[in-house]
Specification:
- The chain is α/β, with parallel strands linked by helices.
- It has an eight-stranded parallel β-barrel, surrounded by five helices. Strands 3-2-4-6-5-8 form a six-stranded mixed beta sheet. A two-stranded antiparallel sheet has the order 1-7.
- Helix 1 runs parallel beside helix 2.
- The longest helix has 36 residues.
Length: 685
């Protein structure tokens, strides 16, 4: 069978919203590949080459939810392909599989700038196909900490042009569930569009039932369920009423305002028993309210952070038919997460005694103001993800898998790997990496795969555990904390917020710990960067840009961060020795190094990616640059003030001029950059 620009298609008479959206995607794909809009046949009796339809009772189409079938049927000597399913998502997945299998459209074509090859015609192998049942029933993404998506375009909350490629990629990955953003205004289109496209919508654990935040709805009121149960329940009632006719996986939970333990706002709950009893009571009440409005609802409880610890200790009681959702610690390990310096690492998986259904909330990206990866690739190897999720599945947590997907674009490789895990329940990380690279590149595939493996080997190991590997936030949040502590004149005492990494040591030792960790990693990042730059020249132009955007950028962010932090440590040492001009130069070096990270992101903002990193408000490299600039200005006051000419005179002015210059003609101070560059050369730093 051959398809080309003349191929005719027929769609179901009653075109539901999810199928309509899927056809829009496939129609766009067909136009790109063949150069013309596909031809639709509306006459039920006319022959067509491709028939998209709901399966009849007598059709041999799989029965499991969201299944589809490709069947080649010959009539009157003409072969046609029937894409059949028993539900909307089945047809959606069938259409998108047609696009992938026959048109060559990659699930991440948009995010990787990988467009299908233009063709005159395509020969189909006439083999029937029944889709297997996905291993995980509910599987999808939490688009969280999505500042790049928010700031990419001017409109807020983000419009369809931002959300559509996100939801499309998820559907192309076989995903069926989504949290569409974090605490976005309710009037945004994100939740409506997700539902229109056929996705199950679920909720942030800090926004149970998808309800409005209490303090936003009732400013000035006490956010206490103990004191104001009717106000909380009014918000829950409104959320249930709004969503009751949609496909919802209801999240039942009780956390405080701003995603923190509720007892922060209500300190009377001062024991684990009191806290667990309150959470149990609220979850039961939410559950009963949902069941009053929704027949056979899917409900879950996120055992995240302090809730997981209370549950494990036996302080929380949850109805048997509510799914328990277990979470990793933000670094991929299925243990409780670190809170500031508090790191119990309580195992976060169901035990043999736990009944009911279970699932996983998993991070491939994280934001924690410490050492997480927000802008860069997951810092541990994919084999680590494979082991953790396969262990979770074996423990019974396979009914639900929600992946924190961040801003999508920096995390395509790991998202693609988890696509395989949620589809099959197992994966081979090395085999997947090779397949991924062969999909994205046409040359040097084995070398590119090796570079990806080496990336995870180079990330800084900052602690004793296998998951204690640093993303780019390690170079920025601690550095800014150090500068603030130092310039506030508090460097005579430890910065306790850094004890999670350094332990309880003095401030000078803390600065030295971070700067040495980073300095020791510089050479390995430099070598990896050089290898990538050498390999890039062997690739076609389009693939050179892809390699820059999806691997070299990440290496540059690590390298610039390591070099910047190392220079910051040098600056503090010089300051402690009262070598103020030298400290000034090192602070300037730190600023210049961090600026290279900004420049690397700007290089990745080509074409429709213009301004993609503009809203880097979480790692916030620009803030780090500004902090280093503030530091060097402060240091320049130590000896070069008030005229800002002394260091030039003492170190740079020719000896023949030092004692005879006229102040009225020789007092134009050098800029900070110029002075730092010339002093750097003078001191051979």
């Amino acid at each position: 069978m051959i398809i080309d620009r003349h191929t005719t298609y027929r769609l179901p008479k009653k075109l539901t919203s999810p199928v309509r959206h899927a056809w829009e995607m496939v129609g766009r794909d067909l136009k790109y590949v063949f150069g013309e809009v596909p031809k639709l046949q509306v006459d039920d009796d006319a022959p067509v080459e491709v028939e998209v339809r709901y399966a009849l009772l007598e059709d041999l189409c799989p029965e499991h939810p969201e299944a589809f079938s490709f069947q080649f049927i010959e009539a009157d000597g003409v072969m046609s392909l029937h894409i059949m399913a028993r539900d909307d998502l089945g047809l959606v997945f069938g259409l998108l599989e047609y696009s992938r299998r026959y048109l060559g459209v990659d699930p991440f074509w948009f995010w990787m700038d990988k467009y299908p090859v233009r063709r005159g015609e395509i020969h189909l192998s006439e083999e029937n196909y029944d889709s297997p049942e996905s291993f995980v029933r509910f599987r999808g993404w939490f688009v969280n900490d999505e500042v790049c998506l928010i700031g990419w375009k001017e409109e807020y909350p983000p419009a369809k042009e931002v959300w559509y490629p996100v939801f499309e990629a998820l559907l192309r990955c076989g995903g069926n569930m989504l949290i569409p953003g974090t605490d976005l205004p309710k009037h945004g289109i994100h939740a409506d569009l997700a539902s229109e496209m056929g996705l199950w919508v679920t909720h942030h654990h800090a926004e149970p039932l998808g309800a409005e935040m209490f303090l936003r709805a009732y400013p000035g009121k006490k956010a206490s369920y103990q004191d104001n149960p009717e106000l909380f329940e009014a918000l829950w009632e409104e959320a249930i009423e709004t969503q009751k006719d949609r496909k919802i996986v209801w999240v039942l939970s009780f956390r405080g305002q701003g995603d923190q333990p509720f007892w922060i706002q209500d300190p009377s709950f001062d024991t684990p028993e009191k806290r667990g009893e309150m959470i149990s009571r609220v979850v039961r009440r939410q559950y009963d309210m949902v069941k009053q409005k929704v027949e056979e609802p899917y409900c879950c409880v996120a055992l995240y952070g302090e809730i997981a610890e209370l549950y494990k200790a036996g302080h929380i009681d949850i109805p048997e038919d509510i799914m328990r959702i277990w979470a990793d610690n933000g670094y991929g390990k299925m243990v409780s997460r670190r809170h500031n310096n508090h790191n119990l690492r309580v195992p976060s998986l169901p035990s043999k005694e736990d009944g009911g259904k279970h699932g996983v909330y998993y991070h491939v990206t994280f934001h924690d103001l410490q050492a997480s990866n927000h802008l860069t690739l997951f810092p541990s190897p994919a084999s680590f993800i494979q082991q953790e999720l396969e262990d979770a599945f074996h423990s019974g947590a396979f009914s639900y898998l929600l992946v924190n997907s961040g801003n999508i674009r920096p995390h395509v490789y790991t998202l693609d790997f988890i696509r395989e895990l949620w589809s099959k329940g197992h994966a081979d990380s090395k085999e997947h990496l090779l397949q991924f690279v062969y999909r994205m590149y046409s040359a040097c595939e084995d070398e590119i795969a090796a570079l990806h493996l080496d990336y995870a080997e180079q990330t800084i190991s900052y602690g004793p555990n296998e998951d204690d590997r640093a993303g780019e936030e390690l170079y920025h949040h601690p550095a800014r904390e150090i500068v603030g502590h130092w310039l506030q004149g508090r460097d005579g005492q430890p910065l306790q917020r850094l004890n999670w990494a350094t332990g309880p040591v003095g401030f000078a030792e803390q600065v030295d710990w971070f700067s040495r960790k980073c300095a020791d990693a510089v050479l390995s990042w430099q070598l990896l960067k050089k290898r990538i730059e050498q390999l890039i020249t062997k690739l076609p132009n389009e693939e050179q840009q892809r390699m820059n955007d999806h691997l070299l950028l990440h290496v540059k962010l690590h390298l610039s961060g390591c070099e910047g932090f190392a220079a910051l440590g040098d600056s503090y040492k010089a300051y402690m020795n009262k070598e103020f001009p030298t400290a000034f130069v090192h602070a300037s070096r730190a600023m210049w190094c961090y600026q290279q990270g900004l420049e690397a992101m700007q290089e990745a903002e080509h074409g429709h990616w213009h301004n993609f990193y503009k809203a880097d408000w979480l790692t916030n490299i620009q803030s780090t640059v500004n902090n280093m600039d503030t530091l060097r200005r402060w240091l320049r006051i130590h000896g070069d003030s008030p005229d800002f000419f002394a260091w030039y005179k003492n170190y740079l002015m020719p000896e023949t001029e030092k004692y005879i210059y006229l102040e009225n003609t020789h007092r134009n101070p050098l800029s900070d950059d110029e002075l730092a560059r010339r002093l750097k050369e003078k001191f051979e730093l």
